[in-house]
Write a structure and sequence with these properties.
By secondary structure, the protein is mostly helical. It has six helices and no strands.
Length: about 140
């Protein structure tokens, strides 16, 4: 017979495992957060995505430089051999800089669409083309 405390503990344990196992089903990656965020570059990428989307361009530029540096170190680590288990190559290859570039393209396309859609002088064709460009940019970013 399980006590109420044991039932609550079991539910909390299940919820905690869901945080790590079902990140994709929660949809965090759709909002600028990578599916995995164990690497430093993933954490910097998340901050970069947020800063760029909030139009904090100076901060985003600094984060982009840090992202490139972190990714370079991760790639160097993967290519380096060694006898220690700590020196073994990581399984996933890093592509955070590519994801940042695709995010930037999407945010810029989104801003272009928003700007055209609120202007009274924009033609319907211009708005449709901007919307299509935004959709294409988003699709590229999502599959990266």
């Amino acid at each position: 017979m399980a006590t109420q405390a044991q039932n609550i503990a079991a539910e909390q344990e299940k919820d905690a495992s869901d945080l790590w196992m079902n990140a994709e089903s929660r949809g965090d990656h759709r909002y600028g957060k990578p599916r995995f965020d164990r690497r430093l570059s993933d954490k910097i990428l998340t901050a970069y995505n947020h800063a760029y989307a909030c139009d904090e361009l100076d901060l985003a530029s600094k984060l982009r430089s840090l992202l490139e540096e972190a990714e370079g170190k991760e790639i160097a680590h993967c290519e380096r051999g060694g006898g220690s288990i700590l020196d073994m190559p990581v399984r996933r290859t890093s592509n955070a800089v590519r994801q940042a570039r695709l995010w930037t393209q999407f945010v810029d396309a989104r801003q272009g669409y928003v700007s055209l859609s609120i202007r009274t002088s924009s033609s319907e064709q211009q708005v449709r083309e901007a919307f299509s460009a935004m959709q294409t940019s988003y699709a590229r970013w999502v599959v990266s």
